[in-house]
Amino acid sequence: MDDHNQPPFNPLPPAVWLLTAPMIALELVFNLGANRLIGGANAIGWRAQAIEDFGIWPAYWRQQSEAGAFDLELLGRFFTYSFLHINPTHAIFAIVILLALGKYVGEVFHSAKTLSVFFVSGAVGALVYASLPSIEQPLYGAYPGDYGLIGAFSYLLWVKLTGTGLNQYRAFSMIGFLLAVQLIFGIFFGGGPEWVADIAAFVVGFGLSIVLIPGGFARLRAVIRQR
Taking a C-beta distance cutoff of 8 angstroms, is the pair 104, 16 a contact? Predict the structure, then answer.
């Protein structure tokens, strides 16, 4: 018998809404401002100003860190940059990945752990990116945090495939596909060094999942013993 009280769409974990709602709201504000529907003439520059004030600027980070000036404004950028995107298309793709991966990870980890994966992975990925002396381009967008969720997804799938007789390396097919797409786009359309933050975030997300998954290290030992 069908359950007519069941919602037509699978509900998203609260953590996913907490992450995506500000991104969507900011895009609406930025686009309304860019079209002069709110804020007047100055609203055209809201997006650029937000990226300047809350994004990751590697040269600024290296300068401040060398001087030991670790204030809240500087450190806060490692969390706020994830909510800012250069244009609506940039935001849409980031949000779609977040919705898909956040739902899967959130159903296993629940809200607090899912938020931890996203923000810790994103912050570490940005730190690695900003600390490299050869990088000058600013970093913004949810993609490093998304890659952290991809790392968590890969670990969960790796554990799930244990004992099934299937190739466990299938768990890494998503990260391999995305990196291949990034490489192709970089060759034909030019690309920046953002992949450094993405890869670092993926590794962090994968590693965090070892601790955050129910059963933690005990489950990891069981997986290793079955290999």
Answer: no
Which residue carries 């935001």 as its tokens?
91
H-helix segments, the chain:
14-34, 46-54, 58-66, 72-80, 88-131, 143-161, 173-189, 194-212, 216-225
Structure tokens at 107: 């159903």
Question: What Rg do the C-alpha atoms of the chain give, in angstroms?
Answer: 19
Structure-token pair, residue 81: 């940059």
In this prediction, residue 4 carries a pLDDT of 53
Q: How far is CA 146 from its chain centroid?
A: 3
Q: Could you tell me the CA-to-CA distances from 4 to 8, 13, 65, 115 in Å, in that order?
A: 9, 21, 57, 32
Tell me the per-residue pLDDT of 72-100, one tens digit each, with 9 for 90 and over: 999 999 999 999 999 999 999 999 999 98
Query: Which tens digits make up the pLDDT trace of 97-112?
Result: 999 899 999 998 989 9
C-alpha atoms less than 13 angstroms from C-alpha of 21 in its C-beta half-sphere: 7
CA distance 147 to 153: 9
Q: Say yes or no to pLDDT of 208 above 50.
A: yes
CA distance 88 to 102: 20
Q: How far apart are CA 207 and CA 176, in angstroms?
A: 17
What whole-number distance in Å separates Cα of residue 175 and Cα of residue 122?
16
